[in-house]
Amino acid sequence: MLQIYARKADRFCLREISNPAIEQAITPALWYDLLSPTPEEVSEVEAALHISIPSREEMEDIELSARLYQEDGAAFMTMTALANLDSDEPTKMPITFILRGTTLVTVRHADARPFTTFCNRALRGNGHSYEGGEDVMIGLIEAIIDRMADVLERLGNEIDAISREIFRSKSAASGKHTRNLEGLIEHLGRKGDFLSGVRESLVSISRLVAYHAAVENHTRRPSKEIRQLVKLVQRDASSLGDHAAFLSGKINFLLDATLGLINLEQNQIIKIFTVASVVFLPPTLVASVYGMNFELMPELQWHLGYPWAVALMVLSALVPFLYFRRRGWV
Which pTM does this prediction carry? Predict the structure, then answer.
């Protein structure tokens, strides 16, 4: 799908055209948005701007030279974004920004909410006048960063809930339903994978903005407003990266704590079995003595022999139990 945006009467608007090359020569567009484009749509934009748009395979290349470069008088910048952020299994998708003069081209193969949010806000008139494609690109990156901030806030709240579940008091945990620590580990693992994707996306944004600032300084002198926006985006991406690193460290701490609790529970079970085996060892010894089939055993002819043996077994079990309890082992 190809959507073209331009300025009309100092307003940001969506323009429906049949031939981008002809319209670009008459009234230059601000932004060509290619969403899962067809070969015909790619060819139309390439003819209008005289550039070569990278394929999806080229966009997914992780080498720096394949993601940030200049060609045919245009700057090509590719970042890694996340789609389906409302689910527990987000998907990675590359987004390419192509700046040629005052025109921006975006290439993406999955829908992303920040693009829809930015378009709706810009079409309504958000008080910002977009003079060129560079302004649009910065606005899109700001929308992506805002979306990342919301996701990190949600992840932080979910991690806090897991932390309360792990470290809740023993009285609260002694109800009918015991804690599923294995399930908590799986939950933390999914959050860790999610957070890794967010951190990767933030790193790619920082690299893109840094490259854009460097190219901008070498080709032309940017306006004061653009420089301020670029610095703001860099600072936001850096601060969100620090927050993501903090959440990642908290997840690692919770994983270690959960594994420690599992080990404690296992040790407690082993401790109970050990104490039980020690407590029942003396009664077993008494029963073994009186279970021997010798002819000359005085207690066999004694009328109180059976109560005596039972009492002796109970006493031999009670003494080590009281000793263990006095020492605080049970």
Answer: 0.73
